[in-house]
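Dear H.,

Thanks for agreeing to be a second pair of eyes. The structure we're designing against is below in token form, covering all 945 positions.
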């Protein structure tokens, strides 16, 4: 009998217990779905606490408040905190919870909700975001708590699951998009810094992010914000209107947010406005090569023609090599690269509650978002017969030749002509009822929520007829299967006009959809009294379904576009059933325990995967100013649906580096012609419905010390391990490993080397074109053996009040990663992800992050200075570490009246840009730091009361 099946009797007993206490309806997935009482102490701090520290550093203060409540000095209402369904007076339990208030988002200079979460110190991992550049999801943003990847953090809205973004992150994993959450309607964001599967189910291995929307607003508020970057580009504006009304037993809230952000082009940043600033060879924009002799042919005349039209800003030059010459330009890459996307978004939110009577309330909410995003990561380029051999036999010269051309912005009507565009739409609806069960202490909630996401991508593509335009009609095949042409070189060397180019390209349109729906039933209340206090319990039943579909443009498979690989439709769905119990057990007056257990059953493809998870925590309060805590829990993650249902996919990576050929050529990465090649290597990937669920174990301990209401400090240790890690081999690391194996740096007979050599398929050394070059990379999802990480979090808060000089609030948060290990094969080596320069799972994480803020409040004025320090990460070449970097944000707010305020916000106050020349262009640490420089906004807020 399997380990999971052993727990079924326990689950049955749980249902019996629930029925005995009168639970005819029970809720679920709604940690904070209950309305937080307006008088609760943890909801909205006063204005002087704009930069509040995480609640991890405030728990001991809550302990003191609880003691006072016992003595009858004050009365505290119980609230539901992320990580538990049992309402409690304390702000958190055995696992720390970080709280980001709506005021924090503005005061600390965060650009949006995503930015606020991403800047938290526990978010140590690297992620490809909307402004990353070459990425599968430039219209979406996500996070990586504890460096474990975006698919190991569960993101909830009001305690409920929402639909994944329909395009997988990095082409592989499913995730929730944080880019379209309207900040105006955010009450607070709670981050559970520990395992959450025993309460929430799958995905909550690294933690839980719960975005809690406002439930009550009195009056109408208008907010307008606009700004730009100091170095040019990126101008943006936002308008927000929110309000609410109490009409008898009916309470309503609404919010509208409209925003527009202009792009930033690489050419607008002087340090990366050319790819030859560090002495590199100009990027090829026109070449004709005799592959039999290796000689380049005819470049000078062609370069003159391109110079005549001012191609690439007049920077075209002749590149002379021993084998001849070709045309190049340092502007070929930056002219077609956006480092910040162009975005327009509209967000709507509405919510209501209707009190039927003192014990029963109906509630509901609806939200919708529309986003239009454009980005550009490379211009159009053409290579002769690319879809087949990549070269042709020139009947006129009697030689095998390859012709290559990049089209300049001046030829196509401007770089933005080649923008990709994403039109996304998202909707979420929730309806339910909550109330008290009779005259007992028990409360219940029953809710239904459904959400859907649609992303329509429009991509400019060269038409397949472009081969005929440049090469003429095909005249047959050689005995070796090479296509024969007799092209006119003059046509190839003649620049196009925008009108001519318009007839040579079209736009493919693909559509991706995802959806989820959940029915949740839960209840919580007192079971019976123990000597040390009341035993509290909560129970949950859940049923949910989710699915996705990816529909490529049918014209792709009909051969309408140049060099397009076959694209398959992919779709899938699965059902989820779950039941959970949670107990709050007072052992003695100073010692409290929490216990939680949950059983999840996923059904897909005619089979079931079941998991039982549990969590246990202890809280010890020897005095009212000190809290010691610890936890141990198990967690799991069901395999990503994209991994399970993806059909065989052929494509190419945005860019790749052939480390082996660079090594053979004896060239450093920064100057290697095989480095950062765009488009990159071809790949073949398919799904795997035999993947096993990931299983995780987590444990940690810590303390909170609060000697006064104005001073507290916390420290917490965490340790997370994942077995059966579901992953796809990172292409960059795969190529690094393959190079190390071929050059003897690694044992070529080791499992890692044998796997890498099988996956990297190269052309024969006798090939006419690119002998020894990468032909294709074979990748697929696998269950890796293990990944584990450990570290600690520190938090502190100190508020001091002066006579005549206002109030000061100082906060500190620090995360230090102590270890991070990965093992691909059970019998293979364990690799150090933290201290090794080469990270086998992709990009390494920050080894430490520090955030310090100081808020100064005097009548009508509030200012906050936020400084964040990021630890060292490897350079692009992965040969050395970049030094730690500190960035500062400043906000200054003046309240003209009780209803009107004006705020100046400056991001990157010191105008810092982190340069990295080791890997060549674009000369900065892409993904870790943004190249925007100093950015500022003015924000005006008016409240109608």
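And this is the sequence the design step returned. I haven't edited it by hand at all.
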């Amino acid at each position: 009998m399997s380990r999971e099946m052993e727990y079924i009797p326990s689950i049955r007993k749980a249902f019996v217990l629930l029925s005995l206490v009168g639970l005819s309806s029970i809720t679920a997935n709604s940690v904070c779905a209950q309305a937080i009482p307006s008088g609760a102490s943890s909801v909205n701090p006063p204005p002087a606490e704009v930069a509040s520290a995480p609640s991890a550093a405030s728990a001991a203060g809550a302990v003191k408040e609880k003691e006072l409540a016992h003595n009858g000095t004050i009365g505290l209402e119980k609230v539901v905190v992320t990580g538990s369904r049992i309402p409690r007076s304390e702000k958190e339990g055995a696992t720390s919870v970080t709280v980001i208030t709506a005021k924090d988002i503005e005061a600390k200079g965060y650009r949006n909700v995503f930015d606020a979460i991403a800047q938290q110190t526990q978010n140590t991992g690297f992620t490809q975001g909307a402004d990353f550049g070459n990425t599968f999801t430039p219209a979406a943003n996500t996070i990586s708590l504890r460096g474990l990847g975006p698919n190991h953090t569960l993101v909830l809205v009001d305690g409920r699951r929402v639909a994944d973004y329909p395009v997988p992150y990095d082409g592989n994993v499913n995730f929730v998009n944080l880019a379209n959450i309207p900040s105006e309607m955010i009450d607070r964001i709670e981050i559970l810094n520990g395992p959450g599967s025993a309460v929430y189910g799958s995905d909550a291995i690294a933690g839980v992010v719960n975005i809690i929307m406002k439930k009550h607003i009195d009056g109408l508020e208008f907010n307008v914000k606009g700004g730009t970057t100091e170095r040019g580009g990126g101008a943006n504006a936002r308008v927000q209107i929110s309000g609410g009304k109490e009409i008898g037993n009916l309470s309503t809230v609404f919010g509208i947010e409209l925003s527009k952000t202009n792009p930033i082009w690489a050419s607008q940043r002087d340090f990366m406005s050319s790819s030859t600033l560090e002495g590199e060879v100009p990027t090829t924009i026109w070449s004709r090569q005799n592959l039999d002799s290796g000689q380049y042919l005819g470049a000078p005349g062609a370069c003159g023609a391109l110079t005549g039209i001012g191609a690439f800003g007049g920077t075209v030059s002749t590149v002379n090599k021993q084998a001849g010459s070709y045309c190049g330009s340092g502007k070929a890459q930056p002219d077609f690269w956006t480092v910040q996307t162009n975005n327009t978004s509209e967000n709507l939110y509405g919510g209501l509650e209707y009190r039927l009577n003192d014990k029963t309330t109906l509630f509901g909410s609806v939200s919708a978002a529309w986003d239009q995003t454009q980005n550009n990561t490379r211009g159009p380029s053409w290579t002769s017969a690319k879809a087949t051999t990549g070269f042709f036999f020139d009947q006129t010269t009697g030689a095998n030749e390859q012709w290559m051309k990049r089209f300049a912005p001046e030829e196509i009507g401007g770089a933005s002509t080649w923008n990709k565009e994403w039109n996304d739409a998202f909707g979420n609806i929730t309806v339910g009822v909550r109330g008290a069960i009779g005259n007992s202490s028990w409360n219940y909630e029953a809710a239904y929520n459904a959400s859907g996401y649609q992303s329509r991508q429009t991509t400019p593509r060269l038409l397949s007829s472009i081969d005929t335009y440049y090469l003429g009609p095909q005249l047959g095949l050689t005995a070796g299967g090479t296509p024969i042409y007799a092209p006119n070189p003059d046509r190839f060397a003649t620049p196009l006009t925008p009108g001519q180019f318009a007839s040579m390209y079209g736009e493919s349109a693909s559509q991706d959809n995802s959806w989820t729906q959940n029915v949740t039933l839960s209840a919580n209340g007192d079971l019976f009294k123990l000597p040390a206090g009341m035993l509290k319990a909560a129970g949950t039943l859940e049923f949910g379904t989710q699915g996705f579909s990816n529909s490529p443009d049918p014209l792709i498979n009909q051969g309408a576009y140049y060099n397009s690989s076959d694209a398959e439709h992919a779709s899938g769905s699965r059902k989820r059933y779950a039941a959970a119990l949670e107990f709050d057990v007072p052992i003695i007056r100073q010692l409290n325990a929490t216990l939680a257990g949950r059983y999840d059953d996923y059904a897909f493809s005619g089979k079931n995967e079941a998991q039982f998870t549990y969590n246990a925590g202890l809280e010890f309060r020897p005095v009212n100013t000190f809290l010691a805590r610890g936890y141990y829990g198990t967690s799991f993650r069901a395999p990503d649906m994209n991994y399970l249902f993806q059909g065989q996919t052929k494509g190419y990576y945005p860019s790749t580096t052939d480390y082996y050929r660079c090594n053979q050529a004896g060239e450093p990465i920064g100057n290697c012609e095989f480095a950062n090649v765009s488009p990159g290597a071809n790949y073949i990937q398919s799904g795997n419905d035999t993947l096993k669920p990931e299983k995780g174990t987590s444990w940690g301990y810590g303390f909170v010390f609060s000697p006064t209401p104005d001073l507290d400090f916390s420290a917490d240790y965490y340790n997370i391990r994942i077995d059966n890690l579901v992953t796809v081999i990172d292409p960059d690391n795969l190529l690094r490993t393959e190079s190390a194996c071929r050059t003897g740096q690694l044992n070529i007979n080791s499992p890692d080397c044998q796997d890498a050599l099988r996956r990297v398929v190269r052309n024969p050394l006798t090939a006419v074109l690119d002998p020894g070059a990468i032909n294709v990379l074979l990748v697929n999802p696998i269950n890796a053996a293990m990944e584990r990480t450990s570290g600690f979090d520190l938090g502190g808060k100190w508020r001091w009040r002066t006579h005549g000089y206002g109030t000061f609030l100082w906060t500190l948060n620090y995360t230090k990663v102590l270890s991070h290990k990965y093992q691909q094969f059970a019998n293979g080596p364990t690799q150090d992800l933290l201290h090794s320069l080469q990270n086998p799972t992709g990009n390494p994480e920050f080894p430490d992050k520090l955030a310090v803020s100081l808020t100064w409040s005097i009548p009508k004025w509030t200012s906050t200075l936020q400084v964040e320090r990021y630890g060292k990460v490897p350079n692009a070449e992965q040969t050395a570490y970049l030094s730690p970097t500190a960035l500062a944000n400043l906000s200054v707010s003046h309240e003209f009246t009780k209803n009107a305020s004006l705020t100046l916000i400056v991001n990157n106050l010191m105008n810092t840009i982190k340069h990295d020349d080791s890997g060549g262009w674009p000369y900065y640490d892409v993904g870790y730091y943004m190249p925007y420089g100093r950015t500022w906004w003015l924000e005006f807020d008016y409240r109608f009361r």
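Two observations from my side: The chain has 16 helices and 42 strands. The longest helix spans residues 8-20.

Warmly,
E.
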